[in-house]
Predict the 3D structure of the following.
Amino acid sequence: MAKVEITNLTRRPSPRFAYSDVAENVLPGWNISLVFVGPTKARALNEQLRAKTYIPNVLSYEVGEKSGEILICLAEAEKQAPAHAMSAREFVLYLFIHGLLHLKGWAHGSTMERCERTLMARFGK
């Protein structure tokens, strides 16, 4: 069973979902660290990990065999959610799914988008 350990480094409440169930569906048996960060930390990590200077909504990377970390900037998620016709809560789940699929090795495209929609319909309640 996939295990998701959640850390919230912000003052904002983090949405509750069955993150481990979602992770098990996408990456069976993986250990995932889900970290909610603020804009300053998100920008610093994006610069450090990807040499990009903007504030990302989500970052994901492997930290070992069957182990990964997903960072979600709650402030960016709240800002960007309306543009995706989602509530902030729904958009956080979407970003988590998006990060899992990147950890799985998937790139952006129609296959990824279809899978995201399917998983949102299944777990986004």
